[in-house]
Design goal:
Blueprint: E1 10-13, H1 17-28, E2 33-36, H2 42-59, H3 65-74, E3 75-77, E4 89-92, H4 98-111, E5 117-120, H5 127-131, E6 140-145, E7 154-159, H6 165-177, E8 181-186, H7 193-196, H8 198-209, H9 215-224, H10 232-239, H11 241-254, H12 265-273, E9 307-311, H13 319-326, E10 330-334, E11 339-342, E12 345-349, H14 355-362, E13 367-370, E14 381-386, H15 392-404, E15 408-411, H16 420-436, H17 442-453, H18 459-466, H19 468-482, H20 491-499
Parallel strand pairs: 1-2, 1-4, 2-3, 4-5, 5-6, 7-8, 9-10, 12-13, 14-15
Antiparallel strand pairs: 6-7, 9-11, 11-12, 13-14
Helix pairs in contact: 2-3, 8-16, 16-18, 16-19, 18-19, 19-20
The structure holds 1,4-dihydronicotinamide adenine dinucleotide.
Length: 505
């Protein structure tokens, strides 16, 4: 274990939302912390704020009063940068501006010991670039906390081209000792989370733009079928569309306009209108007084369904069978290609083809496609779509079957990959490319997406659960359907599938 010694002094620069949170984390872990801000009085104010926050935790019985007292005693405002000269680790959380951060690092280098680690909490600037021109770039590293720092477990430990591996190891172990969940990442645009999460927003925005369904239905599907804490529209309303669009644009530009990261016109229009989300009172949803939250649209059927035929292995959908039989549906099994037959209807998991195209390609009558669920045994909602020549009666049979098993059923227009499958396939694709490009290990990427943005399952583990072949085919079909590079499958998915291996190996 190479964590910073508990006696080592930590300095935090910038007493805003992030700096104050980071100072609290380091002080609670037992370090003496100096907090500096170039706005007079800001550091002392932030420490008062932390003291009040900790007092609330004491009141709630979540912190013992002695711990609060000793934590607050370890926090000292610094009047000048010079007062930070004894620090073993400096973490800067000042304004997100390359020139200003570089200037600060030059000052710190002249001031602090040669062994002092200079860490930046930047979310979007290159660590390599921040360190360039310094005498000791090997000591410069990213320590990317998430907001609010005292609550969010994830810390991305970001190495630039010159960062010494031992420095990254020390910071990793230190973050762990502070009770955080660190991951290693190479300094590349968006690091892990801000890159791999792009498709989560992008695919919902695209589905909305192409008339798949309304926001409330798409959000409900990501939550209730996908197991995500929030759908993309409610989440971007919370983040702020200006902020979310700016991150997308910065990643898009940094990857030289790679269409995989293309910003959305739908979101741009909200920004242009000043509908920035909750903070402005309106975004995709209306937060003004008296406004009502729209409800997801649902299909209902009064058809009677008592039996269905299961043809072949349903793969990731297999747990659905237990649920159907528990709801009293009689199941008959026979060989086949992983389909359910309900009366005249055929029900199959989407593979990224349009329903109408698949019905024609595979000669399937009355085809209804079902979306991916995180867990078919407990999901409360599921999406379906159907081929143009599917009869209303056949569709109603499927709706009745799913209703009987306890699902709310939401209809989507016939778009490739439906909502959850397409989102997860694209998240896994981005994660795979990040592994391929050596940004981070598969395990760290999955961990980062669960600890940093609360995904219910790491995208790569999810791709394994769906099956690499099915994930890959979904992407291939999306790419064919749209004719766009955006959906090109990562070489790592292709290679791992061809080798019969696993992404986590
Ligand atoms: P903020 O605006 O709340 O706080 C920045 C603080 O730095 C202010 O108090 C300001 O007076 C001070 N400051 C500015 N220039 C300074 C200088 N040259 N020397 C000393 N103090 C200076 O900003 P926030 O949100 O805390 O962000 C800080 C950093 O953390 C940025 O690099 C940002 O990209 C990053 N970050 C922000 C997250 C967020 O959700 N807000 C999440 C993760 C990283």
């Amino acid at each position: 274990m190479s964590a910073l010694h508990i006696e080592a002094q930590v300095a935090v620069i910038g007493a805003g939302a992030m700096g104050a949170g980071i100072a609290q984390v380091a002080a609670q872990a037992g370090h003496a912390v100096r907090l500096y801000d170039n706005r007079p009085g800001a550091a002392a104010q932030a420490i008062d704020g932390i003291a009040r926050q900790l007092a609330r935790l004491v009141d709630k019985g979540k912190l013992n009063p002695c711990e609060r007292e000793s934590t607050v005693a370890r926090l000292q405002p610094a009047e000048s940068l010079e007062a930070l000269a004894d620090a073993a680790l400096v973490i800067e959380a000042i304004v997100e501006d390359l020139d200003i951060k570089q200037q600060l690092l030059r000052q710190l280098e002249a001031l602090c010991a040669e062994t002092c680690i200079l860490a930046s909490n930047t979310s979007s600037l290159s660590i390599t670039r921040l360190a360039a021109g310094l005498a000791r770039p090997e000591r410069v590293i990213g320590m990317h906390f998430f907001n609010p720092a005292p609550l969010m477990a994830l810390v991305e430990v970001v190495s630039g081209l010159a960062t010494e591996p031992a420095v990254a190891d020390t910071l990793y172990d230190t973050a762990k000792a502070w009770g955080k969940q660190p991951v290693h990442a190479r300094s590349t645009p968006g690091f892990i989370v801000n890159r791999v999460a792009r498709p989560f927003y992008a695919e919902s925005l695209r589905l909305l733009q192409e008339g798949a369904a309304d926001c409330a239905s798409l959000d409900a599907l990501l939550r209730e079928a996908g197991g995500f804490r929030m759908g993309a529209f409610e989440l971007t309303d919370l983040i702020g569309h200006d902020v979310n669009d700016a991150v997308t644009c910065s990643v898009f530009d940094a990857y030289y306009g790679d269409l995989r990261f293309q910003p959305s016109q739908v979101q741009k229009e909200l920004v242009a209108a000043g509908r920035l989300g909750r903070k402005s009172g309106q975004g995709f949803y209306d937060y003004r007084e008296g406004a009502e939250r729209p409800q997801p649209a649902e299909l209902r059927s009064s058809a009677e369904v008592t039996r269905c035929v299961v043809e072949g292995d349903l793969g990731v959908m297999q747990p659905l069978l237990q649920r159907l039989s528990a709801s009293g549906v009689e199941l008959t099994r026979r060989a086949g290609q992983g389909l359910l037959r309900i009366g005249d209807a055929t029900l199959a998991l989407s593979d990224g083809r349009l329903a109408s195209q698949r019905a024609r390609d595979d000669g399937l009558q009355n085809l209804v496609l079902i979306d991916l669920a995180l867990d078919y045994s407990s999901a409360t909602r599921i999406a379906i779509t159907w081929a143009r020549n599917t009869t209303i009666e056949a569709r109603d049979q499927v709706v009745a079957l799913l209703q009987r098993a306890g699902f709310n059923v939401s209809a989507l227009a016939d778009l490739p990959g439906l909502a959850v499958l397409r989102t997860v396939a694209m998240l896994a694709n981005e994660a795979a490319d990040a592994v391929l490009q050596g940004v981070a290990s598969a395990a760290d990427i999955d961990l980062a997406m669960c600890a940093g943005v609360n995904y219910p399952l790491g995208p790569l583990a999810w791709a394994e659960r769906i099956g690499l072949a099915h994930t890959l085919h979904t992407l291939e079909h999306l790419q064919q359907a749209y004719g766009e590079e955006r959906y090109r499958p990562s070489l790592l998915l292709r290679r791992t599938h061809a080798e019969g291996g696993r992404l986590h190996d």
